[in-house]
């Protein structure tokens, strides 16, 4: 049985400035007990370092979990644009071209976030947009490395 008083396990967000990592770790640790404070911590991290992609991930994840789908969509779309810019890709995901291998870093984050947006659109009952995004993911990641087949199966289950 886990010791309730031990330090929580830290999340590896990658190479982040120490103060941004600390804010994200605090937000993750407090999320289950104080969602509003976790949101404030993540937004503080975003304001201080808008180029740090894990902050967008934290925001869209917590808002998706809470059913705040408009907030989740906003955070994911902003993260998608930032990741695309960092990867040197077009801001419009419909213009992205398949790569010989699934990239690491911002390119992988962009694809993963497109998958997250697909899920968000499914939850919003926007099947048309979700289907368009799934078609793009099939073209960009035919092997399903970033996990889009799970979202596709969910879409199929919804009919």
The general outline is globular
Low-pLDDT runs: 1-7
CATH superfamily membership: Tetratricopeptide repeat domain
The total count of strands amounts to: 0
Largest sheet: none
CATH class category label: Mainly Alpha
| CATH architecture verdict | Alpha Horseshoe
Q: Count up the domains.
A: 1
Helix content range of the residues, please?
A: 55-70%
Mean pLDDT: 93
SSE string, helices as H and strands as E? HHHHHHH
CATH domain topology: Serine Threonine Protein Phosphatase 5, Tetratricopeptide repeat
Percent of residues in beta strands: under 5%
Question: Rg to the nearest angstrom?
Answer: 16 Å
Our measurement of the CA-to-CA distance between the termini, rounded to an integer number of angstroms, reads: 42 Å
Structural class: mainly alpha
Number of DSSP helices?
7
Entry keywords:
159 residues; mainly alpha; globular; disordered N terminus
Structural topology:
Elements: H1 18-30, H2 35-48, H3 53-66, H4 69-87, H5 105-123, H6 127-140, H7 148-158
Helix pairs in contact: 1-2, 2-3, 3-4, 3-5, 4-5, 5-6, 6-7
Structure notes:
By secondary structure, the protein is mainly α. It has one domain: Tetratricopeptide repeat domain (Serine Threonine Protein Phosphatase 5, Tetratricopeptide repeat), CATH 1.25.40.10. 65% of the residues lie in helices and 0% in strands. Helix 3 runs antiparallel to helix 4. The longest helix has 19 residues. The N terminus is likely disordered.
């Amino acid at each position: 049985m886990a010791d309730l008083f031990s330090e929580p396990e830290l999340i590896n967000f990658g190479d982040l400035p120490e103060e941004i990592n600390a804010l994200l770790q605090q937000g993750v640790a407090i999320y289950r007990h104080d969602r509003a404070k976790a949101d404030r911590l993540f937004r503080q991290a975003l304001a201080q370092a808008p180029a740090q992609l894990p902050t967008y991930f934290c925001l869209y994840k917590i808002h998706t979990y809470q059913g705040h789908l408009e907030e989740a969509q906003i955070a994911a779309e902003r993260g998608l644009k930032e990741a695309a810019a960092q990867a040197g890709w077009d801001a419009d995901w419909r213009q992205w071209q398949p790569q010989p291998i699934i990239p690491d870093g911002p390119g992988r984050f962009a694809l993963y976030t497109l998958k997250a947006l697909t899920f968000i659109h499914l939850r919003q009952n926007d099947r048309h947009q979700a289907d368009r995004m799934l078609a793009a993911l099939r073209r960009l990641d035919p092997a399903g490395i970033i996990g889009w087949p799970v979202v596709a199966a969910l879409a199929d289950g919804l009919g």
